[in-house]
Specification:
Elements lengths: L29 E5 L2 E4 H22 L15 H21 L9 H8 L6 H19 L7 H12 L10 H8 L3 H19 L3 E2 L8 E6 L4 E6 L2 E2 L2 E2 L20
Antiparallel strand pairs: 1-2, 1-3, 4-5, 6-7
Helix pairs in contact: 2-4, 2-7, 3-4, 4-7
Length: 256
C-alpha cells in the first residue's frame, strides 16, 4: 500500500513553447520534442479522449436526470495533456541530474474529486505522478527571491480560475499569500525547468498554445488547479512565445 501524505502546495511556472520548425524537427504528427523523446499528437488525443469519455460516463452515472452535452464535457483540454507530458519529462531529467529519488506517495484517488476526473484516467494518473515529482524537486531547490512581478504572476494565474478575489493590489496579494513560500518555490522550480528545456531543446507543435507547467495550490479547504505563465525572479517572461501556425493549420481542438 502506498504511503500517504498531505498534499503540499505545488505551484510551478510555465515553459514557453518553441517552434517545431527549428532544427528540422517539424513532423506534423509530433506534438512535442523533448531531447530525443517524441510525444505524438495521437498520444495527446488518446489521453484527452479517454479523459472526456470517462468523465462523461461518471456524470451520467451520478446525474439525477439526463445531462446536457455541456455537462458531459470536462474543461480538460489537449493543451492540459501536453503540459503534463512535457513537465513530467523535464522534471524527471532535472531529478536525474540532481540524483533525486521520487517517492510514489500521491495516488490518483486523492486527486479525482477536486480534479473532477475519475482516478482511472491516464490524465489523473499523470497528475498524481506530477505532484510527487514536483514536490520532490521543490524540496531540493533553494527558494527564489520574491518580487512583486513574480508574486502578481502567480496571483493572476489563480485569479483566472475564480478561486481568489479579483482586482487585488500588490499589498493585498502579499497579505493574502502571507510568506508566499509557494511562490518562491514556484519561481525556483520554474528556473530549473526552463534551464532543462533549453538543454533538452524542447520544441512544441505550433498547433498547440504556449506550454504551461501544470500547477496546483492547497488552500487548506480545496486544491486549485491552474497553469502559470513562465516566471523567473523578475516576473513573467514575455519575449518567448509560440510562433503562429503555418497558413492553413488550425489549432488543435480543445487547445487553450
Amino acid at each position: 500500500m502506498r504511503a500517504r501524505r498531505s498534499l503540499v502546495a505545488v505551484s510551478v511556472a510555465a515553459l514557453a513553447a518553441l517552434s517545431l520548425a527549428a532544427c528540422g524537427r517539424s513532423a506534423p504528427d509530433v506534438a512535442a520534442y523533448v531531447g530525443d523523446t517524441r510525444y505524438s499528437v495521437d498520444r495527446v488525443d488518446a489521453i484527452y479522449e479517454d479523459a472526456q469519455r470517462q468523465y462523461a460516463d461518471a456524470v451520467r452515472t451520478q446525474a439525477p436526470q439526463t445531462p446536457s452535452p455541456e455537462e458531459l464535457r470536462s474543461p480538460v483540454t489537449r493543451q492540459d495533456v501536453l503540459n503534463l507530458l512535457v513537465a513530467l519529462d523535464l522534471g524527471k531529467r532535472v531529478a536525474a541530474d540532481k540524483g533525486l529519488q521520487v517517492t510514489d506517495e500521491v495516488a490518483p484517488e486523492q486527486l479525482q474529486q477536486q480534479l473532477r476526473m475519475p482516478a482511472t484516467t491516464e490524465y489523473t494518473k499523470l497528475w498524481g505522478e506530477w505532484v510527487d515529482l514536483s514536490a520532490t524537486l521543490q524540496q531540493s531547490l533553494p527558494p527564489a527571491d520574491l518580487s512583486d512581478e513574480s508574486l502578481m504572476a502567480v496571483y493572476r494565474a489563480i485569479e483566472k480560475t475564480g478561486a481568489i478575489q479579483p482586482g487585488l493590489s500588490v499589498a493585498e496579494v502579499r497579505q493574502a499569500f502571507g510568506e508566499a513560500g509557494f511562490v518562491r518555490s514556484a519561481t525556483a522550480l520554474s528556473n530549473a525547468l526552463q534551464e532543462q528545456a533549453e538543454k533538452s531543446d524542447v520544441r512544441v507543435n505550433p498547433r498547440f498554445g504556449v506550454t504551461g507547467v501544470p500547477s496546483l495550490v492547497n488552500t487548506g479547504q480545496s486544491l486549485v488547479f491552474y497553469s502559470l505563465p513562465y516566471v523567473d525572479q523578475d516576473g513573467p517572461v514575455t519575449d518567448i512565445s509560440t510562433p503562429e501556425a503555418p497558413a492553413g493549420d488550425s489549432p488543435a481542438p480543445g487547445a487553450a
